[in-house]
Amino acid sequence: MAQFLFRRLLLLVPVLFGIVLVTFVIVRSIPGDPCIAMLGERATQAKCENFRERYGLNDNLLVQFGRYVGALATGDLQDSISQSRPVMEYLSERLPMTLEITVSAMLVATGIGLILGLVSALYRNTLIDVGAMGIANIGVSMPVFWLGLMLAYLFAIILKGTPLQLPPGTRLSAGVSIAPLAETWGLAEPPTGWLGFFYSLISNSVVINSVLTGNIEVLLDALKHLIVPALALGTIPLAIIARMTRSSLLDVLGQDYVRTARAKGLIERLVIFRHALRNALIPIVTVIGLQMGGLLSGAVLTETVFSLPGVGTAITTAIFARDYPVVQGFTLAVALIYVIVNLAVDVSYTFLDPRIRLDA
Amino acid sequence: MTAIAPSNRLDAEALPPQPASPAAVAWRRFQRHRLAMVGMFMLLAVALFVTIGSLFVHGYCSGLKQDVIGERWANCNDTSQIRQPPSSSYLFGTDSVGRDLFARVIFGGQISLLIGVCAALLEVIVGSIVGAVAAYYGGWVDNVLMRLTEAMLNIPSLFLLIVISKFFGGSLPDINLFGRHLTGSVAVIILVIALTSWMYLARIVRASVLSLRERDYVSAARALGVSDRRIIFTHLLPNTLAPIVVTATLGVANAILSEAYVSFLGLGVTGATATWGNMLEGAYRYLEAAPWLWFFPGILILLTVLGVNFVGDGLRDALDPGGLKDL
To answer: In Å, how far are A152, A304, B97, B292 from B288, measured between CA atoms?
Structure first.
């Protein structure tokens, strides 16, 4: 196991290098001058020269790339041009929001998708099946942000005044806020370096912060604000998971060992949950991992619709500002998360099916 | 004489029927797929709506002080009619600068469908060539192409899309097509969507060419001195047609959605040319005040994409039942 993980992590190096190269090349090809984007009307020849010198934009592209990779090797994402501070710091503010909606959307998608798929498979070719698969088909055909608008309209406007009313956007209600953990815990100074990065991630995540400080009021408000974005974002993976669960379970239910289990008089519930579902899970888990990419993409759109301060809104702003380090760093972070989730999926196969040996 | 004729007919009936061509078999299977037929009718309805409809939309444009028809009506803004709710004179209401949404949905639909089809075609060309070349030549060519493919697959597609769409940013001249005047950004978006979506197809084509190139008929062709290019295009690619057709169909749906996403973020088709995507840009600010702004373009995207997905499912079952399940 340790050997497998090590080898897989080693294999990640060329993939990550490829990602860094692709983003670097693409980002530098954006026409326009970061100096003019930043300074606007005030950009004079001399000022721009200074500016370019400061951010090393005058050097040869190869030199710039070398410097970037060198910085990455020490875990540095360089400084943001438009924010004049480390990209890491900016990332630690924006990433928690994106992770919160992505994770909650994944929970929605897996929870409901599994149930929907299971029910469809068990009541195959009945009205329930046709209905559930119809919903799944419509789910994958909807633009994420449009579904977001529809849900926001439903929960915030049509259901206004009922207990089901939910806020259509923003992170927290007006007047509700969180304090940095260091302040609450009375630390003299927040940690720095890598530890500081992870500290900020936790401290800036409204959900984790409010759980750690036991602030129920903030937690409930935060969760309430998460429901609509999570539903909107989770629908496409939900539909795909439901379809995959149905077909995978139908496959397994037709196999001999399931017939044997039934023949020896096992109750149906045990046949389904202990024998069939576990074997059906492998393709389902694979799909869940692959859906992470779509979720992270969808998060950009969901954040825009609901005006949430996440990675997606930051990247779009950074593209307009020609803020190369932010676009590169944020894209890399997102790709890294995707790659790691899929590695975790590979590892989970061994738990689902002991016949799969990782070191093979 | 009269006695022989019936027995002749009997003989003809006893003969085994002509074997159906693969295309005919596929078409029969496709027709039996109920959802696929529903999807085809949905697409037909949308296609008729955006073509026939465009011939009839008209109105009095107060800016030009005359009655106008067609695209000029779709682009005519009347500042006294900003964000009017749907009514008998404006079936789908008006947008933020007072243009008729019904006309814009029709003309925007033409562009969205054009983008969908062209981007999918381009995606197929790039994907099949990369996949076939990688598999046919193998070695370092394969290595370089596949590592590139993997790197691009590992970056969530929308991130690639928004970064690349800025790359070309409206630097192209306007285009005239079928009497319509389009901004150059339409071509940019087609290119960008194709360039960020070819990777899956490349992997599928590579996998199937890898096995095909070891077949005897390919060795025979090579022994006859047929050029590599000819082998790839006339011997290998036609044999991977089934996955290519299915991917191309589903690619149309994805391209329409991608256009909507990029345009929604303000990075897509710009200028006066309407698309379903750019009609939605900024519409989220009027969630409660003007829901028709975002409802109608969205519902047409949904209908089209749903139709394409149904047809794609039907094609998959018709062309290769069993083989392409994981596409």
So the answer is: 9, 17, 18, 10
Residue of A nearest to B158 (CA): A297
Q: State which residue of chain B sits closest to A244, comparing Cα positions.
A: B326
Look at the block and give the residue holding tokens 């009021």: A217
Distance of CA A349 to the CA centre of its chain: 21
| Residue pair B103/B296 in contact by the 8 Å Cβ criterion | no
Residue B66, beta-bridge partner list: B61
**For chain A, what percent of residues have pLDDT higher than 90?**
3
Tell me which of A34-48, A221-235, B40-54, B184-198 is least confident.
A34-48
Tokens 């790359």 -> residue: B167
Q: Does A297 touch chain B (CB under 8 A)?
A: yes
Closest C-alpha to A314, from A103, A107, A96, A56: A96
Question: Is A98 domain-assigned?
Answer: yes
* Residue A280 within any structural domain of the chain: yes
Per the structure, the count of domains in chain A is 1
CA atoms lying within 13 Å on the CB side of residue A84: 5
Q: Which domain holds residue A182?
A: 89-309+346-352
Residues on B contacting A at a C-beta cutoff of 8 Å: 35, 147-148, 150-152, 154-160, 162-164, 166-167, 169, 171, 253, 257, 260-261, 264-267, 280, 283-284, 287-288, 291, 294, 298, 301-302, 305-306, 309-310, 325
CA A171/CA A178 separation, integer angstroms: 11
ipTM score for this prediction = 0.76
CATH number of domain containing A251:
1.10.3720
Minimal C-alpha gap between A184 and chain B (Å): 36
Name the closest residue on chain B to residue A335, using Cα atoms.
B155
- For every residue of B180-199, which 3-state class applies, written as one string? EEECCHHHHHHHHHHHCCCH
Residue A33 region by backbone torsions, left for phi larger than 0, else alpha for psi between -120 and 50, else beta: beta
Cβ-defined contact of B253 to A339 (cutoff 8 Å) = no
According to DSSP, residue B238 is labeled: G
Angle subtended at Cα B6 by Cα B1 and Cα B11, rounded to the nearest 5 degrees: 120
Contact A22 B253 (CB under 8 A): no
Q: What is the distance between the alpha carbons of residues A201 and B160, in angstroms, rounded to a whole number?
A: 25
**A149/B283 CB distance under 8 A:** yes
Whether residue B151 and residue A19 make contact (CB cut-off 8 A), yes or no, is yes
Nearest-neighbour CA in chain A from B34: distance (Å): 12
Do B26 and B321 touch, CB atoms closer than 8 A?
no
* A291 to A295, A298, B33, B134, B220: CA distances (angstroms): 6, 10, 28, 27, 43
**DSSP-derived secondary structure letter, A310:** S
C-beta of residue A333 within 8 angstroms of C-beta of residue A262: no
Mean of pLDDT values over B20-48: 84
Q: Which tens digit of pLDDT belongs to each residue from A220-267?
A: 888 888 888 898 899 888 988 998 888 888 888 888 888 898 899 888
Cβ separation B156–A293 shorter than 8 A: yes
